[in-house]
Specification:
Largest sheet: none
Number of domains: 2
Helix content: 55-70%
Structural class: mainly alpha
Protein backbone atom coordinates (compact mmCIF):
# COMPACT_ATOMS: atom_id res chain seq x y z
CA UNK A 1 0.00 0.00 0.00
CA UNK A 2 1.57 3.26 -1.10
CA UNK A 3 0.54 6.79 -0.45
CA UNK A 4 1.11 10.20 -1.94
CA UNK A 5 3.63 12.65 -0.54
CA UNK A 6 2.10 14.78 2.20
CA UNK A 7 3.89 17.96 3.26
CA UNK A 8 2.47 17.86 6.81
CA UNK A 9 3.61 14.27 7.29
CA UNK A 10 7.04 15.03 5.88
CA UNK A 11 7.46 18.08 8.09
CA UNK A 12 6.53 16.19 11.24
CA UNK A 13 8.53 13.06 10.37
CA UNK A 14 11.75 14.53 8.98
CA UNK A 15 13.89 16.52 11.42
CA UNK A 16 15.60 19.69 10.28
CA UNK A 17 19.37 19.26 10.17
CA UNK A 18 21.27 21.43 12.64
CA UNK A 19 24.85 20.18 12.39
CA UNK A 20 24.35 17.56 15.10
CA UNK A 21 25.29 14.10 13.78
CA UNK A 22 22.52 12.34 15.73
CA UNK A 23 19.93 14.57 14.01
CA UNK A 24 21.47 13.69 10.64
CA UNK A 25 21.14 9.98 11.49
CA UNK A 26 17.50 10.55 12.48
CA UNK A 27 16.87 12.33 9.19
CA UNK A 28 18.40 9.44 7.23
CA UNK A 29 16.24 6.90 9.09
CA UNK A 30 13.12 9.01 8.52
CA UNK A 31 13.86 9.37 4.80
CA UNK A 32 14.20 5.60 4.48
CA UNK A 33 10.96 5.03 6.39
CA UNK A 34 8.88 7.58 4.50
CA UNK A 35 10.35 6.49 1.15
CA UNK A 36 9.14 2.93 1.80
CA UNK A 37 5.57 4.20 2.18
CA UNK A 38 5.38 6.45 -0.89
CA UNK A 39 4.38 5.88 -4.52
CA UNK A 40 6.90 6.79 -7.26
CA UNK A 41 5.77 10.40 -7.60
CA UNK A 42 5.87 10.76 -3.83
CA UNK A 43 9.41 9.41 -3.68
CA UNK A 44 10.64 12.14 -6.03
CA UNK A 45 8.74 14.78 -4.06
CA UNK A 46 10.41 13.49 -0.88
CA UNK A 47 13.84 13.80 -2.49
CA UNK A 48 13.12 17.39 -3.55
CA UNK A 49 11.71 18.30 -0.15
CA UNK A 50 14.76 16.96 1.69
CA UNK A 51 17.19 18.71 -0.67
CA UNK A 52 15.37 22.05 -0.47
CA UNK A 53 13.99 22.22 3.07
CA UNK A 54 15.70 19.81 5.50
CA UNK A 55 19.44 20.26 4.95
CA UNK A 56 21.88 22.79 6.36
CA UNK A 57 23.72 25.00 3.90
CA UNK A 58 26.87 23.00 4.57
CA UNK A 59 25.08 19.76 3.68
CA UNK A 60 23.66 21.30 0.49
CA UNK A 61 27.19 22.11 -0.64
CA UNK A 62 28.37 18.53 -0.05
CA UNK A 63 25.46 16.83 -1.82
CA UNK A 64 24.26 16.89 -5.43
CA UNK A 65 21.32 19.08 -6.45
CA UNK A 66 19.39 16.17 -8.00
CA UNK A 67 19.08 12.48 -7.11
CA UNK A 68 17.39 9.69 -9.05
CA UNK A 69 16.26 7.98 -5.84
CA UNK A 70 16.17 8.45 -2.11
CA UNK A 71 18.46 5.43 -1.73
CA UNK A 72 21.18 7.32 -3.62
CA UNK A 73 20.51 10.44 -1.54
CA UNK A 74 20.81 8.46 1.70
CA UNK A 75 24.00 6.79 0.43
CA UNK A 76 25.61 10.19 -0.22
CA UNK A 77 24.33 11.56 3.10
CA UNK A 78 26.05 8.70 4.92
CA UNK A 79 29.23 9.16 2.90
CA UNK A 80 29.53 12.94 3.08
CA UNK A 81 27.65 14.02 6.23
CA UNK A 82 28.48 11.36 8.83
CA UNK A 83 31.82 10.89 10.52
CA UNK A 84 33.61 7.72 9.48
CA UNK A 85 35.29 6.01 12.39
CA UNK A 86 38.22 3.63 12.10
CA UNK A 87 37.67 0.09 13.39
CA UNK A 88 41.27 0.01 14.68
CA UNK A 89 40.82 3.26 16.61
CA UNK A 90 37.54 2.10 18.14
CA UNK A 91 39.06 -1.25 19.08
CA UNK A 92 41.95 0.53 20.81
CA UNK A 93 39.52 2.78 22.69
CA UNK A 94 37.58 -0.28 23.82
CA UNK A 95 40.71 -2.01 25.10
CA UNK A 96 41.90 1.10 26.93
CA UNK A 97 38.61 2.18 28.50
CA UNK A 98 38.57 2.50 32.29
CA UNK A 99 35.72 3.30 34.63
CA UNK A 100 37.68 5.78 36.76
CA UNK A 101 35.14 8.20 38.29
CA UNK A 102 32.23 7.31 35.98
CA UNK A 103 29.12 5.73 37.42
CA UNK A 104 28.55 2.12 36.38
CA UNK A 105 25.64 3.32 34.22
CA UNK A 106 27.79 5.88 32.37
CA UNK A 107 30.64 3.40 32.00
CA UNK A 108 28.28 0.72 30.63
CA UNK A 109 26.75 3.23 28.19
CA UNK A 110 30.19 4.23 26.95
CA UNK A 111 31.27 0.60 26.44
CA UNK A 112 28.00 -0.16 24.65
CA UNK A 113 28.40 2.87 22.35
CA UNK A 114 31.95 1.85 21.49
CA UNK A 115 30.81 -1.70 20.69
CA UNK A 116 28.01 -0.43 18.46
CA UNK A 117 30.36 1.97 16.64
CA UNK A 118 32.95 -0.81 16.24
CA UNK A 119 30.33 -3.16 14.80
CA UNK A 120 29.22 -0.51 12.30
CA UNK A 121 32.81 0.32 11.33
CA UNK A 122 33.69 -3.35 10.81
CA UNK A 123 30.55 -3.93 8.72
CA UNK A 124 31.74 -1.21 6.33
CA UNK A 125 28.27 -0.51 4.93
CA UNK A 126 27.29 -4.18 4.55
CA UNK A 127 23.88 -4.53 6.21
CA UNK A 128 24.17 -8.35 6.26
CA UNK A 129 27.34 -8.10 8.35
CA UNK A 130 25.50 -5.91 10.87
CA UNK A 131 22.99 -8.68 11.52
CA UNK A 132 25.72 -11.14 12.49
Amino acid sequence: MTEKFNLKTATSLLPLMNGNESVTKQLIDAIELYDSLLDNDGKQALTNYVLKARLTESAKIRLKNVYASNALLVQDMRRFLLTTKSAASLSTQLVQIRQNNMSIEDFGRKVENLLVELTIAQADGNSEALQI
